[in-house]
Amino acid sequence: METLLPVQEQKANRVINVLSLAIPIAVAILLGIRQKVDLGSWTTYLPHINGIINSLTSVLLLLGLYFIRQKNVVAHKRTMLTAFTLGSFFLVSYVLYHLTNESTAYGGQGWVRPVYYFLLVSHILLSIVVVWFVLRAVYFALSGQIARHKQTVKWAFPIWLYVSITGVVVYLMIKPYYVH
């Protein structure tokens, strides 16, 4: 027999599920818009800011792991919430860039080209998947459901770390082809 979830948990699950679908759908729709919005030349710096955000997020994720292994829950919580906040800033910055600028074509040749596209495609696909895991991990942690938080983090952490690190690698690989 299925157990009934408390109303608050049902609402949280609904919000998490809706956001996990709405975010990638909204990003895909926004990326598909061919008419770019002119917000000024400052938006050409957003990929570089995103590279910094992804780098900081990767470091914070590793620090969060370190802190929890040291049983420093307060530092772990602060570090992970900062990583989550940076992820939110990244999403806004990413959407802003693609609303205002044409996508940059990768110009690398030879063996590095399929490596770049493998990293890019795996990064994109896993960035879609990780949203659900991260939202659940944050919810479980903040609601004091530590056992469920730990279960979710077994999936969320490695995927999120991979997405953050490959975001940096993909950025560094395409950086020479950005036009300002």
Q: What would your notes on this structure say?
A:
This protein has 180 residues and is an all-alpha fold. The protein is 77% helix and 0% strand. Helix 2 packs antiparallel against helix 3, helix 2 (46-69) runs antiparallel to helix 5 and helix 4 (112-142) runs antiparallel to helix 5 (146-174). It has helices at residues 7-32, 46-69, 73-100, 112-142, 146-174. The chain is globular and about 50 Å long. The model has no long low-confidence stretch (mean pLDDT 91).
Short description:
This protein has 180 residues and is mostly helical. 77% of the residues lie in helices and 0% in strands. The chain starts with 6 loop residues before the first helix and ends in a 6-residue tail after the last helix.
Question: How many beta-strand elements?
Answer: 0
Radius of gyration: 18 Å
What structural category characterises the helix and strand content? Answer: mainly alpha
- How many separate domains? 1
Report the biggest beta sheet as strand number plus sense, adding barrel if it closes.
none
Count the helices. How many? 5
- Overall helicity: over 70%
The coarse overall form would be globular
Mean pLDDT: 91
Report, as a whole number of angstroms, the end-to-end distance. Answer: 60 Å
Instruction: Give me the strand/helix succession.
Output: HHHHH
**Low-confidence runs (pLDDT<50, min 5 residues)?**
none
Please report which band the strand proportion falls in: under 5%, 5-15%, 15-25%, 25-35%, 35-45% or over 45%. under 5%
